[in-house]
Model the fold of this input.
Amino acid sequence: MATEPLTITILEGDETGQELLEQALRVLDPDVVGLPIALDRYDLSLENRRATDNQVVEDSAAAMRASGLGIKAATVTPEGKDDVGSPNRIVREGVDGKVIIRTGRRIPGINPVAGVYLPISVVRMAVDDAYGAKQWREGSEGGADEIAYRTEKISRGTCTAVAEYAFRTAQRLNGKVYGGPKWTVSPVYEGMLKEEMDLAAERHPDVWYQPVLIDATYAGLISGAADSPLVIPALNRDGDCLSDLVMPMFGSIAGAESVLLAFDQDFKTTVAMAEAPHGTAPALQGKDIANPMAMILACGAVLNYAAEKGVEGAERASRAIYESVLESTARGVRTHDLGGQAGTTEFTDDVIGRVRTKMDVWSSLGSTR
Done:
């Protein structure tokens, strides 16, 4: 009896983001990972989003709700206020995403900034806050009296999800929940996240908890607060900025994946969409020099969540991808951003070769994990 293929929703993108996606998807070939995988593709290029008035984005979100798994390429967000806007917001809202987690981890052979060697995970809100806020201006345009306004919002439910997931992640990593919003200046708005962090701490008394204001969190990361694995719960924009600090501390913003998560009432994952945390890098398009690490690791992350859903063989394939990516860098196969000479295709080829070898060896030994 044939095994039902694992369906993964693919959200195609723009420029170098699309090129990196195509390279990464080579790792998911059934002949490489030993799993029957079906890729359900949606074209989220800027041209097609404009042509469909974002209907393709809505359709991709609906497909991902059904499959529960997605991989997204970087996409262009146009600047014009009357243009199609950000597909990220539409997708996140479309799957009821609550949390985005990005984990900086040591890249073998690369010296991290400030002596940081232990993992740092940023757990941020996936929706609301500064993104999607209502904005307007009053007064004479261009005049000294012109005033810009912005109305932001966050929900108790999203704050609960961020706090609870942060503590569960810290428990799994044997780490510390560290940081937080600026609750002293904004006790009503930002204080809501702090309240949920405190409540989560009560539910998880065995987790080390050190709440720190957001500005002190930045300073602490640079000055050596990472004396254990850190998990940092954050508001949406705070978490976006923190991620762009944490990733390069380990060597490259392309060194780790980003995962959007939706949960049920028991915080069991219902949708997991993985992507690279970087943008479309138009200056690198067509040059075959961009680092595909984050996109390849995104494939490994999705397989890990497939394993949580009970897909046989997915955990082993996920582990093979993660180990192979890090082994490649350890053996000196690195792209230019990591001080190496390998191109995008060369790095991907090396990872694929290592994944194949691992899968063959583990299969011959009868290993199922």
